[in-house]
Amino acid sequence: MPADWDALTRLTGGALFEIERVRLVSQDIAIEGRFTPPALATLPADDQVFVAAFVRSHGSIKQMEQLFGVSYPTIKNRLNRIAAALPFMDVQPSAGDAGESSVSSILDRLERGEVSAAEAVSELSPTRSRKESSHE
After folding, report:
1. With contact defined as beta carbons under 8 Å apart, do 51 and 43 qualify?
2. In CATH, what class is 3-85?
3. pLDDT digits (tens, 9 = 90+) for 60-79
4. pLDDT tens for residues 1-54?
5. What is the 3-state secondary structure (H, E, C) of the chain?
6. Which of 23, 103, 105, 106 is deepest in the core (most CB within 10 A)?
7. What are phi and psi of 29, to 5 degrees?
């Protein structure tokens, strides 16, 4: 991680900040405006490194223990602290994920008690979906 980014995250001390000018180095183009950095960029530099290591280790706490030389509870506590600092991201499925959206919708309805478990299973059954499609 570049030293200047590390310095910036230390200077902001966790306070919200905006970026007003972006320069594309390879094209010598500058863009001015008000840009809010993503939530991960607002974490302290050492937490950003920790998150990157966690992703690179495919979420393996065992690998994280070895990499950082700390115990399981220490890794879990740090992950919990970082997670608490980040807003929850509600990821909406794209238009190409209609099947996933349907599954998500069925599971949401089940969680709210709008359908029984048996009805949800029936709706999720691939044979039922094919039959319904052929009758339309």
Report:
1. yes
2. mainly alpha
3. 999 999 999 999 999 999 99
4. 556 777 877 788 777 788 888 888 899 889 898 888 888 888 888 899 999 999
5. CCHHHHHHHHHHCCCCCCEEEEEEHHHCEEEEEEECCCHHHHCCHHHHHHHHHHHHCCCCHHHHHHHHCCCHHHHHHHHHHHHHHCCCCCCCCCHHHHHHHHHHHHHHHHHCCCCCHHHHHHHHCHHHHHHHHHHC
6. 106
7. -115, 135
pTM of the model: 0.54
Count of residues in the chain? 136
110-136 b/e (C-beta count within 10 Å ≥ 16 → b): beeeebeeeebeebeeeeeeeeeeeee
Q: List the domain boundaries for the chain.
A: 3-85, 95-135
